[in-house]
Amino acid sequence: LFPGEPKWKKNILTYRISKYTSSMTSADVDKAIEMALRAWSSAVPLNFVRINSGEADIMISFETGDHGDSYPFDGPRGTLAHAFAPGEGLGGDTHFDNAEKWTMGKNGFNLFTVAAHEFGHALGLAHSTDSSALMYPTYKYQNPYGFRLPKDDVKGIQALYGPRKTFPGKPTVPHTPPHSPSIPDLCDSSSSFDAVTMLGKELLFFKDRIFWRRQVHLMAGIRPSTITSSFPQLMSNVDAAYEVAERGTAYFFKGPHYWITRGFQIQGPPRTIYEFGFPRYVQRIDAAVYLRDTQKTLFFVGDEYYSYDERKRKMEKDYPKNTEEEFSGVNGQIDAAVELNGYIYFFSGPKTYKYDTEKEDVVSVLKSSSWIGC
Amino acid sequence: APSLFAATPRTSRNNYHLLQAYLVKYYTKKGGHQIGEVVARGSNSMVKKIKELQAFFGLRVTGKLDQSTMDVIKRPRCGVPDVANYR
């Protein structure tokens, strides 16, 4: 939320598109704006009414360079748009940089995506540090069709306006999406998994709000499910995970916190990763893998890794070390890692490196998505 | 402050100017004397702002202008500052 938590005091808000862009038809602009507003009104008891003349609560325009509000636009790329927090006059107004190429699709900047983000500001939300949130400040395409507000945004907007009632007269219920979260299309994606771990006899693959379970040697029956359905505390975007099978314990990392589980049962509240001995500048773990032979867990952070002695429960000296220097043939940042049949599988973007710890070299490279049957 | 830069001198200068503009735009409260403060090359204030930026984006907090920080700076984004009292 913004400092002082500004919000609208009424629940019917007017909006007006006062200047259009030449890069899209007016009809498409109208549609993108309407859909972006609906993304918010489906979560909170706010209603948006369009007007075509006079002063609306939310004045929407495409502007170029200096446009009189002390926040000049900077031409193509850079700043795409901005919006003002709720209030009189300029409050709620939303400006898009007319120098951008605006589109309804992916070829250029998707207007729905940017407008939905800006309307979050116009309703009282500041930027989020959660990279899966709509209110994260950098551009990431969102499909307008079937779009649902991420959890962090729902939490933020409902903190200001409360949840939307389903029907007049019925009890107030929290906003729940009508369908399960969209499943990331890993078969047609250059992205990798967020985290991979063994859990008992299964391999778990995490991506955004979804995870896949598969038997190690079986490709059949791999089905996605929501993280919240099995690990409600984790909600989404697991950074790293590993299991110490001898203890029957698994560890799930998210930002500076981690959770311990026995099977799918979370044990106790989250703890901080600094208990492992990480320096304070480490704020999240990219990947973790437990090596059964040495009983050590490797934690990957950026282009470096740490080694944690599970027997002594202590971080080893002389770390971090450079990952590419120590693991010959493994290139790029490690997204996830898991040990299987004596090999370490490093997931980096669309590639998985199969690393032989005895040969100390990569012995093959697989497509990351092949793990879930693509 | 040579430790701020790891690239070639020309790229470093360009990156520096980009960083300067970015920090002024998104990591400085408008209308104060802090704009002058933040642009002082190599000053603690600039390092502090870089650290703020890195912490906000979940990067490794070094206070140095490394590649991942430059990547974030070059990414298209919303014009609302991450830290300022934007009203």
Indicate the structural class of chain B: mainly alpha
Q: What quaternary form is this?
A: heterodimer
Taking pLDDT < 50 over at least 5 consecutive residues as the criterion, the unreliable ranges of chain A are 167-180
Secondary structure: number of strands of chain A? 24
Number of E strands of chain B:
1
* Main sheet specs of chain B: none
Sheet with most strands: strand arrangement of chain A = 2-1-3-5-4
Biggest beta-sheet profile of chain A: 5 strands, mixed
Compute the CA-based radius of gyration of chain A.
24 Å
Secondary-structure content class of chain A: mainly beta
Structure description:
The complex is a heterodimer of chains A (374) and B (87). In chain A, the strands form six sheets. In chain A, strands 2-1-3-5-4 form a five-stranded mixed sheet, covered by helices on one side. Chain A has 374 residues and is mainly β. Chain A contains five helices and 24 strands. Chain A has helices spanning 26-41, 111-123, 151-161, 227-230, 323-326, and strands at residues 12-19, 47-50, 58-63, 79-83, 94-97, 102-103, 109-110, 195-199, 202-207, 210-215, 223-226, 240-244, 249-254, 257-262, 265-272, 287-291, 296-301, 304-309, 314-315, 321-322, 336-340, 343-348, 351-356, 361-367. The radius of gyration of chain A is 24 Å and the shape is elongated. Helices cover 51% and strands 2% of the residues of chain B. The radius of gyration of chain B is 12 Å and the shape is globular. The chains are: A mainly beta (374), B mainly alpha (87). Chain A binds chain B through residues 2-4, 6, 70-71, 73, 77-85, 87, 91, 109, 114, 117-118, 121, 126-127, 129, 131, 137-139, 255, 281-284, 301-302, and chain B through 25-26, 30, 55-58, 60-62, 68, 72, 75-80, 82, 85-87.
